[in-house]
From TrEMBL:
Annotated positions binding NAD(+): D31, K36, T87, T122, E156, K264, R328
Active-site residue list: C261 (nucleophile)
Residues given in the record as substrate binding sites: F153, L154, R155, E156, K205, F250, L251, Q252, A253, G254, G258, K321
SMART domains: UDPG_MGDP_dh_C
Protein name: UDP-glucose 6-dehydrogenase
Biological classification of the source: Bacteria, Bacillati, Bacillota, Bacilli, Bacillales
């Protein structure tokens, strides 16, 4: 069992640290954020991620997992140092490597022996070679540093599960011994290992995310055509997915992909290609389709209601996907800002992500689905939380002023909706239960005037 430091305790760093500790290694997690570290020391996870907190507490209690803000304390005498700091998007779409540079500098100052540095941050091709050169120049006689690229493929919301059940572990290294050491760290997981050179490992990460994003934009384009030709996207995707060469996954049509990875990594890959004078037309289209898709519900609602000015809009869901509190690059942010621009009154509800959303959105937040739907003229479903999927469908008509729902995640079957009193618009499927808006509003006005 090894002594391991993990630098950066976000989604990737914390989950990696906790899981490596659970595999029996001694792990110290280092972060510059004092508040986060003090929470984690008490066994509290700063992020919402199923199973994570229980596993953290268990490994803290069993003495294999500690946390610090002190790089010197965390780095010295380690066998392996994992790097898992953020690589956010810059204005021009390229990856911001300043956190990586800072962390590499922090690590270099404290290395006092031979060590393997394993990079889990998603970085442009060639970055890990630059990191290797930096260590060669700055660590000197104190120890030999070998840099290994080990990109991460976990999904938020199922990060712990993915760590233990991933499809593959990618190890990109120029030094065979360093690659073997990293393989050994994960051996107990019994997962397929792909060993390659550093540049190919870096590219595998971007190409994988870009391919998955392409599948999503492709199915979203097909869904728009389905709406016009009278086909049903759910059946189309099911039928396509039955072909094993296509596969069933990532064919869920919706309001586009969000999150901290696909948007930034697709943009970064366009930049990486551009740097070597390759215009990545296909990926640029994928991004363009996604940007358009995120606004689809607002466009449809506007067309249906004439104008959204002064209308009460209930937004169900804010997280970029279920089972996470993350709203980075979430469609909800784009949708809410567009609704405000259109002059609508927006009330949103999300089971977990409202605290994060309140930091960036100037809208009203409700304490429940029912509170969000109260007197609404239209409801938009943004995230497919189970809570929304399991909602009795008459809840909409019982609480909304006009029961019109635009479902961006196809949460309900058309058969179920047909049974309910509801006008239902979804993605790539026919509209169900169209109400006569004029008659509806007339009755509503009559009732409010005459009690
Ligand atoms: N979030 C995901 O699902 C996911 C999945 C696969 C890969 N990735 C990649 O992994 C990397 C990390 O992503 P994330 O979502 O975990 O990031 P994050 O922003 O959630 O966390 C990064 C952490 O690093 C800390 N940090 C920054 N500089 C530091 C330093 N010098 N020393 C110590 N700590 C420092 C920050 O305080 C923060 O807690 C990114 O490159 C991302 O693209 C993310
Ligand atoms: O069929 C689908 C599948 C996903 N999505 C959307 O795509 C986005 C991303 O979803 P998902 O991939 O499940 O979540 P992430 O946590 O962003 O994980 C992706 O990004 C990570 C960071 O790089 C990688 O590690 C993972 O392998 C990769 O799946 C979300 O907005 C989803 O709603 C769809 O619209 N349709």
């Amino acid at each position: 069992m090894k002594n391991i430091a993990v630098v950066g305790t976000g989604y990737v760093g914390l989950v990696t640290g906790v899981c490596l500790a659970d595999l029996g290694h001694h792990v110290i997690c280092i972060d510059v954020d004092e508040e986060k570290v003090s929470q984690m020391r008490k066994g509290h996870s700063p992020i919402y991620e199923p199973q994570l907190e229980d596993l953290m507490k268990k490994n803290i209690e069993e003495g294999r997992l500690t946390f610090t803000t002190n790089h010197a304390w965390g780095i010295r005498n380690m066998d392996v140092i994992f790097l898992a700091v953020g690589t956010p998007q810059q204005q021009d779409g390229s990856a911001d490597l300043s956190y990586v540079q800072r962390a590499v500098n922090d690590i270099a100052q404290h290395i006092n022996r031979d060590v393997v540095v394993v990079n889990k941050s998603t970085v442009p091709v060639g970055t890990n070679e630059s990191i290797q050169q930096y260590f060669n120049q700055h660590v000197g006689e104190l120890g030999q540093v070998d840099v290994v690229s080990n990109p991460e493929f976990l999904r938020e919301g199922s990060a712990v599960y993915d760590m233990f059940h991933g499809d593959r572990i990618i190890i990109g290294a120029d030094n065979e011994d360093a690659a073997l050491l990293v393989e050994e760290l994960y051996r107990r997981l019994k997962l397929p290992v792909v060993k390659t050179d550093i540049r190919s490992a870096e590219m595998i990460k971007y190409a994988s995310n870009a391919f998955l994003a392409t599948k999503i934009s492709f199915i979203n384009e097909i869904s728009s055509i389905c709406e016009k030709v009278g086909a049903n996207i759910e059946d189309v995707a099911y039928g396509m997915g039955k072909d094993r060469r296509i596969g069933t996954q990532f064919l869920q049509a919706g309001i586009g992909y969000g999150g901290s990875c696909f948007p930034k990594d697709t943009n970064a890959l366009v930049q990486i290609a551009g740097n070597v004078e390759h215009k990545f037309d296909l990926l640029e289209s994928v991004i363009h389709v996604n940007n358009r898709q995120q606004l689809l519900l607002v466009k449809k609602a506007k067309e249906r209601l004439g104008s959204l000015h002064g209308k009460r809009v209930a937004m169900l869901g804010l997280a970029f996907k279920p089972n996470t509190d993350d709203i980075r690059e979430a469609a909800s942010v784009v949708v809410a800002n567009e609704l405000i621009q259109e002059g609508a009154y927006v009330t949103a509800y999300d089971p977990i992500a409202m605290t994060n959303a309140a930091k960036v959105l100037n809208i009203e937040f409700a304490n429940s689905v029912v509170e969000a739907l109260q007197e609404a003229d239209v409801a938009l479903i943004i995230t497919e939380w189970d809570e929304f999927k399991q909602l009795p469908l008459n809840t909409y008509s019982e609480h909304m002023r006009v029961p019109i729902v635009f479902d961006g995640r196809n949460c309900y079957t058309l058969e179920a909706v047909q049974e309910a009193y509801l006008e239902y618009h979804s993605i790539g499927r026919p509209v169900v239960g169209e109400v006569d808006l004029n008659k509806y509003l007339y009755i509503q006005n009559f009732l409010s005037e005459h009690g």
